[in-house]
Design a protein that fits this description.
Blueprint lengths: L1 E4 L7 H7 L4 E4 L17 E4 L7 H6 L5 E4 L9 H7 L2 E3 L6 H16 L2 H9 L18 E5 L3 H12 L3 E5 L5 H7 L6 H7 L2 E4 L23 E5 L8 H10 L2 E6 L5 H5 L7 H4 L4 E3 L8 H19 L11
The structure holds nicotinamide-adenine-dinucleotide.
Nicotinamide-adenine-dinucleotide (NAD) binds next to helix 4 and helix 6.
Amino acid sequence: MRIGFFELEGWEEKFIREAFAGHDLYLSKEKIDEKTLPEQKNFEVISVFIRSHITTKVLKALPRLKLVTTRSTGYDHLDIEACRSRGVAAAFVPGYGDNTVAEFAFGLILALSRKICEARARVKNEGKFTTDGLVGFDLAGRTLGVIGTGRIGKHAVRIGKGFGMNVVAYDVYHDDAFAKEMGFPYVELEELLAQSDIATIHCPYLPTTHHLINKSNIGFMKRGAYLINTARGAILETGALISALKSGQLRGAGIDVLEDEDKMKIGNMSPASELLAMPNVIITPHNAFNSEEALKRILDITIDNIKSFVAGKPVNLAQEL
Ligand code: NAD
């Protein structure tokens, strides 16, 4: 079978070659989209990451394609409807690092709450071992608002509780047993924004979550609160975030995902230039998934997605075929 892997880093190669010995493999560091189609187009299976955009046009250019499997949990970069109408299966990696992303969200929270980036810069760049201006705040006793209590959000709840935080959550689906077990209430989104000292986003990007936090509702946030987004950039309206930070409505933000982050991946930082200039904003390059353990699990699940599909028993499909 002709299998193409795109957006590889290099370390994966030996595992892929071992797993698919005897198959016709094409391994590439490049992404695949309408502008960057590979020269070879006879793939039956492709595995991509989040910079690849699988559209009707890309599918048309790959006439033998039967399966596209993304090495990510989010699959908003795959046109699922286009895959369905072409009869191409679309698979994803549902849970490779639920703790991994939640731990990173707390990395951002702690970096903001205890001014860790400024403290490091003080010592390393300024050569000063002083604490003036570095007063932070405790997480214990503060309220954490978790938007989306799926696999990652549940870990955020657990970690928040571990820090002694009060937790409130918003989700279109309520897991009442989990809420009872962990001792938190589900509230409406506006209520969550009003109660939270720190709100953290863990829902998927969908038409219904486009600009879920926007200029009409960001004003409900408690004055001086923090907002964390490790989910997808377009869930949070960038203009609304900038205005809220400028007005002091928000005291800071931890942002791992941005609208237009594709442009930034090729060195164009302009989509985030205003945010980058703000000392109370930490921006990381869509890095929350990036732990040794998670990367290996992502690859193992992707290999399994392909093997199961080839064996006629597809798993982890994003759509019914
Ligand atoms: P999940 O499917 O387990 O959970 C998502 C939760 O969001 C579900 O409980 C769902 O009911 C809820 N939800 C759906 N629509 C909603 C809405 N309109 N309002 C509120 N909640 C809503 O997903 P997960 O594994 O927890 O991952 C969540 C997201 O995190 C992924 O979709 C992906 O975009 C993102 N992610 C980011 C990284 C990163 O590196 N930054 C890594 C992995 C995942």
